[in-house]
Design goal:
This protein is of the alpha/beta class and 347 residues long. The chain is built from 12 helices and 12 strands. The protein starts with a strand and ends with a helix. The protein has helices at residues 12-25, 39-46, 52-60, 85-93, 117-120, 160-175, 191-204, 217-226, 238-252, 290-304, 307-322, 336-345; strands at 2-8, 32-36, 63-68, 98-104, 124-130, 140-144, 150-154, 180-185, 211-216, 233-236, 259-263, 269-273. The strands form 2 sheets. Strands 2-1-3-12-11-4-5-10-8-9 form a 10-stranded mixed sheet, sandwiched between helices. It has a two-stranded antiparallel ribbon with strand order 6-7. It folds into 2 domains: 1-96 and 265-347, Isopropylmalate Dehydrogenase (3-Layer(aba) Sandwich); 110-253, Isopropylmalate Dehydrogenase (3-Layer(aba) Sandwich). Bound molecules: 3-isopropylmalic acid and magnesium ion. Residues 242, 246 line the site of magnesium ion.
Length: 347
């Protein structure tokens, strides 16, 4: 069981360090951790955000624990060299097409949401976001029009098989939860979305036990703040999923608690907190490592089938929260290492 640890930029290294402590403490036989450079940190050392040496490590492991990438001091670089390309490149190179982003309110933390507690308290949803296609990876460019002005363009497209495989992930996730799947698109305007909807409907024939609904993305954005408790599993494309998953995390109110998994066919997966590199608090020892610790739990569950160990980590985090161990993002004052200690103590 080989795990690559790519800590990255900003608070990435601090939060990843605590997650590694938790993994070490479990003393799982045969678990091997291999560190690698990604993002701005990799650019500074190797001249590229995803250098060949890192990609080699990524291709040789069973799972990746990822911190965060992003460094605004490198935003002047051409797009291909910017820190974000590390995670985009890994998603594409490793075929990590299925992004699972659960958003659940922890008991007792309903007040952190900007939504009323009786609304936020009901949030328990999973966004299944397609991660290898859409306007993210289509052709793009800047061209000069006949009148001399520049025009930026990005090609949005989805092929049937790309939609089909993420639809299957969505339906299976729904089967494992309450049996409800909501497919989000913009089929009233976009051809890409009409094809998406047609394929999702075709795939639904394989899952007669799942109740499928469709929603336009603008309406989904509204419903997420109006009545988020009505959602269970949402399946959507790359761009809509990017936006809605940030919105869902804010509805929960504690971005420092949300983990995610990006899965390929088989067991390979990349696991990361959904928060970014947070350069404003980097290096201060105050970042909340819980989302990364919970990402390590997802890693054990999805890539290695270590359900009991995953549940142990999740219970330890929940116990620490219940005992009032809270980082600044949750209105508390516990530091990064202190939170790591608290989770370890309850493991
Ligand atoms: C995310 C991030 C990335 C994305 C960025 C860093 C490229 O926002 O994982 O949601 O847009 O997918
Ligand atoms: Mg995003």
């Amino acid at each position: 069981m080989r795990i690559a640890v790519f800590a990255g930029d900003g608070i990435g290294p601090e939060v990843t360090e605590q997650a590694v402590r938790v993994l070490d403490a479990l003393e799982i036989a045969g678990l091997e951790l291999i560190e690698g450079d990604v993002g701005g940190a990799a650019y500074r050392k190797h001249g590229h955000p995803l250098p060949p040496v890192t990609l080699d490590i990524a291709r040789s492991v069973d799972a990746i624990l990822f911190g965060a990438v992003g460094d605004f001091t490198l935003d002047h670089l051409e797009r291909a060299l910017r820190p974000e390309q590390a995670v985009l490149g890994l998603r594409k190179e490793l075929g990590l097409f299925a992004n699972l982003r659960p958003a659940t309110v922890f008991k007792g933390l309903e007040d952190l949401s900007t939504l009323r507690p009786e609304v936020s308290g009901k949030i328990d949803l999973l966004i299944v976001r397609e991660l290898n296609g859409d306007v993210y990876f289509g052709e793009k460019g800047t061209r000069t029009l006949a009148d001399g002005q520049r025009q930026g363009w990005d090609m949005m497209s989805y092929a049937e098989d790309e939609v089909r495989r993420i639809a299957h992930v969505g339906f299976k996730a729904a089967q494992g939860r309450s049996g409800k799947l909501c497919s989000v698109d913009k089929a009233n305007v976009l051809e890409t979305s009409q094809l998406w909807r047609d394929v999702v409907i075709a795939v639904s024939k394989d899952y007669p036990d799942v109740e499928l609904t469709h929603m336009y993305v603008d309406n989904a954005a509204m419903q997420l703040v109006k009545n988020p408790g009505a959602f269970d599993v949402i399946v959507t494309g790359n761009l809509f999923g990017d936006i809605l998953s940030d919105q869902a995390s804010m509805c929960v109110g504690s971005i420092g608690l949300l983990a995610s998994a990006s899965l390929a066919d088989g067991t390979l997966g990349l696991y990361e907190p959904i928060h970014g590199s947070a350069p404003d608090i980097a290096g201060k020892g105050i970042a909340n490592p819980m989302a990364t610790i919970l990402s390590a739990a997802m890693l054990l569950r999805h890539s290695f089938g270590l359900e009991a160990q995953a549940a142990r980590i999740e219970a330890a985090v929940a116990a620490a929260l219940a005992d009032g161990v809270k980082g600044g993002d949750l209105g508390g004052s516990a530091g990064t290492k202190e939170i790591g200690d608290a989770v370890l103590a309850r493991l």
